[in-house]
Amino acid sequence: MTDVNDVTGAANTASEIVETEAGPARITWHTAEEARLVLAVSHGAGGGIEARDLRALAAVLPAHGVTVARVEQPWRVAGKKLAPAPKTLDLGWRGVWPALAEPGLPVVSGGRSAGARVSCRTATELGAHAVLALSFPLHPPGKPEKSRAAELLGSGVPTLVVQGGNDPFGKPGEFPEGPYELVEVPYGDHGFAVPKRAEITQEEAVAVITDAVLEWTGSLG
Questions:
Q1: Which of 22, 31, 46, 83 could staple 12 via S-S, CB 3.0–4.6 A?
Q2: Residue 13 and residue 35: Cα distance in Å, rounded?
Q3: Helix locations, the chain, DSSP H
Q4: CA distance from start to end of the chain
């Protein structure tokens, strides 16, 4: 069984700084030996690439032909605690895209929370092969009337949403019908944490994520 926390010491892991118009970003590469896809994933507005879902994907997918690139937005690299406006996040993502495409493979644009929104907003423009939206923030907590569904529905490419069953930013049942797939992580919150009383363990919850993404990436042409 792959240790989903063991992603930093592997021989096929490397980091690079990429200059963007929003400032320097950082890509941490987890390279597959015989890669057929690059999965680029960024973090949310309140955390970094050490999030449990991003670490798990980096630990599991390279053994299955998917190179994972965990992207730190410029504001995180600069040590700031608050994310900038969406247009600045998009600017940073555009800036790292040439480096993500450099291997010459199809690039799946992905991220968690705010990073998922960035991927949806820029997918068609950047020529993304598909979009992976982890913990898509459908609305601010307690404010379902402020829906961001248009961003998700407008991605324009094959899209997978992986959503916690108890995510205050949007439970799976709140999502509108549309041209995307949705996988629920039972009991999961916005960070895919599950309570101790849940019927599944934290490890099983993380496996739901990696299994779903592995199956989905395998189905992409």
A1: 31
A2: 14
A3: 52-60, 74-77, 86-101, 114-126, 149-153, 202-219
A4: 27
**43, 44, 45, 51: CA torsion to nearest 10:** -70
Which amino acid, 139? H
Residue 181 burial by CB count (10 A; 0-12/13-18/19+): exposed, middle or buried?
middle
Joined together, the tokens standing for residue 24 give 């320097």
Contact assessment for residue 182 and residue 209, using Cβ atoms and an 8 Å cutoff: no
Question: Residue holding tokens 């299994």?
Answer: 211
Tokens of 55: 């670490």
| Residue 29 β-bridge partners | 14, 69
The token duo for 133 is 């939206």
CB 77 within 8 A of CB 23: yes
Give the residue from 34, 38, 18, 36 showing the smallest Cα distance to 26: 18
Is the Cβ–Cβ distance between 209 and 162 less than 8 Å?
Answer: yes
